[in-house]
Prior knowledge:
9 helices; Phosphoribosyl-aminoimidazole Synthetase, Chain A, domain 2; 2 domains; 333 residues; CATH 3.30.1330.10; seven-stranded mixed β-sheet; alpha+beta
Amino acid sequence: MVLALGKLPPAVLSKYLLGMTGAPSSDLVIPPSVGVDFGVIKQGRDYLVVSSDPVTGITERVGWYAVNVSANDVATSGNRPRFIQSIILLPEDARVGMVASISREMHRTAAGLGITIVGGHTELTPGLMRPIVVTTAFAFARSFITAADSRDGDTIMITKSAAVEGTAICGSDAGRFGRGADQEMIRRARGFYRKLSVVEEAVAAFGTGKVHAMHDCTEGGVLGAVYEMSFASNLGFELLEDKIPVARETSYVCSRLGLDPLRLISSGTLLLSVKPGAEEEVASAISAAGSKVTAVGAFRKGGGVLARRDGKRETVEGPPTDELWKLIDVRGT
């Protein structure tokens, strides 16, 4: 079986990885599972929430992304991340300036989120064409939710708009757009990296007590995140394309590059499964945290459906391959 770039398919994960967890422990409350981006360990009356994530496909602001992606995953438990550890793998030709830039970005980003960096490992690695940074975030919690806790009839809501991270990544490579491109639009797209964190909105939403599940829309974008949450919760869904907010900058870069914004990596977009009737209360809490949220569909029994703007109903039978991989030259040339 030849594997595609990006996340492994759920069937492969289930068969070859999820059962390979070493020694059993009664303290492991949430074990590895498809669609759930953190593990939970029981510690007396409290819990330790842990999540790891890599940054593999970008070369700019790597430290910023690295801190945010794992912090976001922990925050989807409803709890604020407190600590981070990192592994930084650098290309063979890396200079001291690259090390300094990554570490400085990680320091500033973590400090802004109230996170302490506790250590890690950094090296120059043979064969790499770009830096790879892996972070592990930790939080202490009294209670939590997971992406597997959606309920039949829950409203699907997303914060901000689709393809937040993908818009920032595309905007950071202005050379891809060719002559005649709107440079101001590309500059604004590049600034989307500032929207990458979901920590404040996730903590605020959890505080309402009306959110059953949350998930950060990372690889595979909004559609990938909805699929993963539905798979984890053993539910289907109906996602309404015409309800999903897509920023002008996102529409522009995706149109120029031939990308689907619903399938483009979107850290910074928080997916929520909300108790029916509580949408306004959750929206108010998220607004107070400085963000916005939109209802875009519902979880239900059965299969997954994407209702397109033209009225067609597209069956979603698996997680989509992220559109970003279309732009990445894996040979590094």
